[in-house]
TrEMBL record, chain A:
Coiled coil: none annotated. This is Origin of replication complex subunit 4. Residues 216-400 form the Origin recognition complex subunit 4 C-terminal domain. It comes from Salvia splendens (Scarlet sage). One of its GO terms (cellular component) is nuclear origin of replication recognition complex.
Length: 419, 828
């Protein structure tokens, strides 16, 4: 491989750390009274004291619910080898009861090297579930059921949840049902019989405040001692980084970042971008990297779509806008075309395209999502006659026009409702 | 090595002689009190103050071993089988168990030899028809001892019967080598040797409470050398059977069944016990000295090779058996010889066995008296045996793998599941009060007695008894309703348990009981096949099952075999409602037919379920009803404190607080139990935290009001306020704009476009940057994902409709005093 650039190695290390949720969230496991320690207490008490439990992890997306759970399970598997088996279900895949039970049976069979039959019926699988719970309880083995997207399991009659939770209260087993959901009202979705059997333990995952961010960034970005990097490189890298992280400028960047979204996953994406911007020749991160990473994760898709439009498309958008202002109820391509034709009459311009050219431009707008059909009815109809709606607001359109490099003056005038 | 030693030691076989009964009887014993006899915990077992001087007489021990009822019966039976005294000369070469390795015991060889034997016998007494078959016995008196299925015995390990036979029944003091006599022997918890209280240095006055370890073991632990006194010259120290067993010179086995071979010898099927040293992992640190493992290894053994009874007990029995003598062992786990894994022995399992045993006794009461009349029954049992054997073979052969999760209700391969090592922390640790409280508050632990539901249980009992005990058994229906967690199913099942014991006692006629849960059926129609399986044990499709059941319950079929009345318990009855309600109609129609002998108990939540159904159904179901009202706070308090009796973990006010809180909301007992359990968890968590940080055990932690409060908060409080407080600035502004818009327009629903205008004006007026529509849309969608807002998908962009999901007062409350955006307060 030859001599490796230490900067490249450092970049590789940091990037692989950011991509590894277990590493990132190990920061939270050190904190006292964190969700990590609470969840670990709940599951490990089920392992050591042989009891059933059920818990719900709630919180917005990107706050590390699944990651913390994985971390807890990993640690517990290390502490109690061969005593925990994990069954993972996802509401998006297994919301159907029959298929969820089958999946449970399959995963349990895999775990214990039993023969699995996919022909087994609902009845057989649920009986199997009960007896496996009982046997595992007798053998001091804990089964952890992880139900991701828990809210999707609450559709229908909730047979799966009922049979799981009913088994918890009737079989002397040791099992934990962990539901993971981003819906805060997930426990309210349970049917009354199921809710009565659910233990209502809830752990709330919140997005962390700004001060935590800096420490988390240090945790991720500082190069470790035991890497294959030369020592002086590591020392200078870390020193520069600490300077940046402590600086006011960086705080400003973080504030801007947290202004719209303060979840951990957002921060991670930001750090990843920043590290990708790292200059390999200088061999260290600079504040400029962080600054340039900021706009690249706060994209404005509609604005950018406007930037790429042709002048004709802008004309069409402005025409739609004018129609909207005139409070025309029904707007389709024909009425837009009419409006478009009326412009050259009042302002003597040469931009007068044929109808089929305009139609092509209009279809492009549809594809870009700047314009959409009003409803899904009449799909057989051709595009020209179906009613459409403009999806961007007046402000956005004006902003787009102003930032457009070669926008005709006429368009601005039209926007300002002249003529 | 051990074997040669033993060869030297024991000289004369003393087979036929009846064992000397010892004159010492119970009245010499000071009845000791085990400190932990009240709690059934598996941990902290000890029986160091063994007071017996010698092995106890068999009679008292036996009766404590059996249930009193069965003991009474067995005494009757045992008169009939002849107590034989086998002649000393006829030592059958095939009789002793195979010597070398237990695991390679082969059934085939033995059965071949047996066949040879039987052929001989046939030649001899060709005229005698009776003895051609094995005759099974419930109880055999052999060699002066009484043996029956379920007993545990010592089995000789060596085939040449010369060695093991001297059987010192009297345990000697390890110091003075005199038998106990009238004085008390105390057992060391470590080396299991017995000592006279007086022989100890310093001598003890009374048996101490708690663990006691002799001075020799203490010395050995401290690294000193302290030899046990040597016996006088010319006198050998006799080893007791227990010592031999624990040094693997003897075997212990459980008698599964007994029979008399055609040649008149008595055999039994043995289920082996194994000592911890013989397992794959060896002795583990938490193993008790007297611990054995039950294996799943069987063999046929001749009665001749048994020595005498030993007593293998479950941990609970063991904890209570303070003066059980020397031959008492503890067995908590089953050892899987094929996979080298351990599994706890289920308590339910043993209960079931007990129940079956009783029924069996009833069944062959007659058959055992006359060995001829029993032959039919026996051959059946034999066939079952063969089946079992074949099953075992097919299981072990990997040629035909059987799917674990199918196979018509039978589940194969579960023997593979088992712990390779028994986790140490479960047994060597003492449970704190909080941990005990947690385990007793579990929903899965069934309380010993149901409180607060006496009236309802009486009503159910009278209903069922009234239906069963009538001569022609009128079919009836009972509809039980009540909100979840009020003990409906539990009460009915408790009544059924009581009735079952009455059936066992013989005071009411036997019946069959089928329990079905509507939510566990794949479809409502499936109930037919489940009922049919419950009644007959055969599985058929639901259509066929319906026909069969119709035929069974119909009038014409008077001469059917099974005339027992049938009780059908259907939980979650409302799940059986189909569009044309045919399933419910069928089930509720059967009881009304004459001679159906069917009783249906339906359980559901809604009070007016019968009224919602078709009139022809409600007229059949709605006559007898029983309502389970929600518990009030005194009842909840009673339920919780009855579970926590004897455990000092909760403050009384805390229990009252929790029960009042639950009673005010739902009266759901499950909820109350869960709150208390959670409170105990919170307290325990706190206790462990402080123990970690301060490292000194500073007093006892009790679950108090604060813990209950925390648990209730966690359960009842919706998390949205916390989420709103912690979300990003822009989300807060977004929510504030929603509230503002709501106040301004008075309409809950708004569109994204309008809202964006409000947000941008907020930002402009208060010096915040407006981040652009796209970012704002993303924020709105995230809020919608958490269900703080209800919103349409984000592709609708500016047309997206938005609405607050929680009351605007909550949002206002959460945002009012936010530190990073103080100006929000003036808009809301």
């Amino acid at each position: 491989m030859g001599v490796e650039n230490p900067a490249e190695v450092a970049k590789f290390i940091i990037r692989s750390r950011i991509a590894d949720p277990l590493f990132v969230y190990s920061y939270f496991s050190q904190l006292p009274d964190s969700n990590y320690s609470k969840l670990k207490y709940i599951i490990s008490s089920s392992v050591t004291e042989a009891c059933n439990n059920s818990v719900l992890l709630l919180g917005p997306r990107g706050c590390g619910k699944t990651a913390v759970l994985e971390l807890v399970l990993e640690d517990l598997l290390k502490e109690h080898p061969d005593m925990i088996s994990v069954v993972k279900l996802n509401g998006l895949l297994h919301s159907d009861n029959n298929c969820a039970l089958k999946e449970i049976a399959r995963q349990v069979c895999m775990e214990h090297q039993l023969q699995f039959s996919k022909m087994a019926s609902f009845d057989e699988n649920s009986k199997f579930l009960l007896s496996i719970l009982r046997e595992c309880g007798l053998a001091h083995k804990t089964i952890v059921f992880v139900l991701e997207e828990f809210d999707l399991f609450t559709e229908g009659k909730q047979r799966l949840l009922y049979s799981l939770l009913d088994a918890m209260q009737s079989v002397s087993s040791q099992a934990v049902v962990v539901g993971v959901s981003c819906r805060l009202d997930a426990d309210q979705l349970l049917e009354k019989r199921v809710r009565s059997r659910f233990s209502h333990r809830k752990l709330l995952f919140l997005s962390s405040p700004g001060e935590d961010f800096q420490r988390l960034a240090e945790h991720i970005l500082l190069l470790p001692m035991d890497s294959r990097l030369p020592n002086d490189f590591r020392a200078s890298f870390n020193e520069k980084l600490l300077n940046i992280l402590a600086g006011e400028e960086f705080k400003g960047v973080v504030d801007q970042l947290c202004y719209s979204d303060s979840t951990v996953s957002h921060l991670l994406r930001f750090l990843f971008c920043a590290v990708c911007h790292m200059d390999l020749s200088s061999g260290s991160l600079s504040i400029q990297n962080f600054k340039s990473a900021l706009p690249s994760i706060q994209r404005q898709p509609k604005q950018e779509a406007l930037k790429d439009c042709s002048v004709l498309q802008l004309y069409l958008l402005v025409c739609m806008k004018r129609l909207e202002v005139k409070e025309v109820e029904l707007c389709n391509f024909n009425s837009i075309m009419k409006e478009y034709k009326s412009i050259p009459d009042s302002f003597q311009t040469c931009d007068n395209f044929a109808r089929n050219v305009c139609l092509r431009a209009f279809e492009h707008l549809l594809q870009r999502g700047l314009v959409s059909f009003q409803d899904n009815r009449g799909q057989g109809q051709s595009t020209e006659f179906r009613p459409v709606k403009l999806l961007i607001s007046w402000h956005e359109l004006q902003q787009g026009l102003q930032s457009f490099p070669s926008c005709p003056v006429l368009l601005h005038k039209l926007m300002a409702r002249e003529g | 090595m051990a074997e040669t030693q033993q060869m030297k030691k024991f000289k004369t076989p003393s087979k036929g002689t009846p064992r000397a009964k010892h004159p010492i009887s119970l009245d010499h014993h000071i009845a000791p009190q085990t400190p932990q006899s009240a709690t059934p915990s598996a941990i902290n077992l000890r029986r160091s103050h063994r007071l017996t001087a010698a092995t106890p007489e068999h009679r008292p021990a036996l009766s404590s071993f059996n249930t009193p009822k069965s003991a009474a019966k067995t005494r009757k039976i045992c008169e009939d089988p002849p107590s034989i005294l086998p002649t000393e000369t006829s030592i059958n070469p095939a009789s002793p168990p195979p010597v070398e390795s237990r695991k390679k015991r082969k059934f085939q060889e033995k059965s071949a030899e047996k066949r040879k034997d039987s052929r001989n016998v046939k030649c001899k007494r060709a005229a005698d028809r009776k003895v051609k078959k094995k005759v099974y016995h419930k109880k055999v008196v052999y060699d002066g001892g009484e043996f029956s299925a379920g007993h545990d015995v010592y089995v000789k390990r060596r085939s040449d019967a010369s060695s093991d036979d001297e059987d010192p029944e009297v345990e000697e003091c390890r110091v003075c080598f005199k038998p106990a006599g009238r004085r008390v022997l105390i057992e060391c918890d470590d080396c299991l040797n017995g000592f006279h209280l007086k022989c100890l240095k310093p001598p003890l006055k009374a048996v101490p409470d708690g663990d006691w370890v002799c001075c020799y073991c203490v010395a050995r632990k401290n690294g000193e050398v302290m030899e046990f006194p040597e016996p006088q010259a010319g006198k050998k120290r006799a080893r007791t059977a227990r010592e031999k067993l624990l040094s693997s010179d003897l075997w212990a086995a459980r008698i599964e069944s007994l029979w008399k071979e055609v040649d008149g010898t008595y055999w039994f099927r043995a289920r082996w016990y194994i000592i911890p040293e013989e397992t794959a992992v060896g002795r583990q640190p938490h193993n008790l000295r007297r611990e054995l493992y039950r294996t799943n290894d069987f063999a046929d053994v001749e009665m001749e090779s048994t020595i005498r009874h030993c007593f293998v007990m479950s941990p609970r029995e063991f904890a209570n058996a303070a003066d059980g003598g020397d031959d008492v062992f503890l067995c908590e786990y089953e050892y899987e010889v094929q996979w080298h894994s351990f599994k706890r022995i289920a308590e339910i399992d043993s209960n079931e066995n007990d129940g079956e045993k009783v029924v069996d006794n009833d069944a062959d009461w007659n058959s055992c008296d006359e060995s001829d009349s029993g032959s039919d029954f026996n051959s059946e049992e034999e066939a079952a045996y063969e089946n079992e054997k074949r099953n075992r073979l097919s299981q072990s052969s990997s040629l035909r793998p059987v799917a674990a999760n199918s196979r018509k209700g039978q589940i194969f391969g579960l023997q593979k599941i088992g712990a390779k090592k028994i986790p140490e922390n479960l047994r060597s640790r003492k449970q704190t009060d909080l941990e005990k409280a947690k385990s007793t508050l579990l929903l899965a632990t069934v309380p010993k007695s149901l409180t607060c539901r006496d009236r309802e249980m009486n009503e159910i009992t009278t209903f069922i008894k009234g239906a069963i005990c009538d001569e022609q058994c009128l079919g009836r229906c009972l509809y039980v309703h009540g909100v979840p967690g009020t003990g409906k199913t539990m009460s009915v099942l408790a009544v059924m348990r009581n009735l079952k014991s009455e059936v066992d006692a013989g005071s009411i006629r036997p019946y069959c009981f089928v329990e079905i849960n509507g939510l566990k059926l794949a479809s409502p129609e499936n109930i037919y096949s489940v009922i049919y399986e419950g009644l007959t044990g055969h599985r058929v499709g639901w259509k066929k099952a319906l026909n069969l059941l119709n035929a069974r319950f119909s009038d014409e079929n008077k001469c059917r075999k099974d005339t027992r009345p049938c009780i059908l318990l259907i939980d979650e009855l409302d799940l059986l409602v189909t569009r044309n309600q045919a399933v419910l109609y069928n089930i509720l129609d059967w009881p009304t037919r004459p001679n159906s002998k069917l009783i249906v108990i339906g359980i559901a939540n809604t009070m007016d379920l019968p009224e919602k159904l078709l009139p022809r159904i409600s007229s059949r179901m709605g006559i007898q009803r029983l309502c389970f009202g929600p518990y009030n706070f005194q009842q909840l308090q009673e339920i919780i404190s009855s579970r926590l009796k004897g455990i000092d973990a909760f403050e009384k006010v805390a229990i009252e607080f929790a029960s009042r809180k639950v009673a005010a909301v739902s009266g759901d007992a499950r909820r109350a139990l869960e709150i208390c359990r959670r409170a105990a968890e919170v307290a325990d968590y706190r206790a462990k935290k402080t123990a970690l940080s301060s490292s000194d055990a500073s007093g006892k932690v009790m679950a108090g009001m604060a813990d209950v409060e925390a648990a209730i908060k966690e359960m009842f409080q919706a998390p949205h306020i916390q989420v709103i407080r912690s979300c990003s600035k822009l989300s807060k502004i977004f929510l504030a704009a929603m509230v503002y818009e709501l106040y301004k327009t008075g309409i809950g629903e708004t569109t994204f476009e309008k809202l964006a205008m409000v947000v941008s004006s907020f930002c402009a007026n208060n010096g915040e940057t407006f981040p652009g529509y796209d970012t704002l849309l993303k924020v709105g969608c995230k809020l919608g994902e958490c269900r703080l807002l209800l919103c349409e998908p984000g592709t609708r962009h500016k047309l997206q409709k938005l609405q607050l999901n929680y009351p605007n007062d909550d949002v206002t409350f959460a945002l009012k005093d936010s530190k990073d955006l103080p100006w929000l307060a003036k808009y809301i």
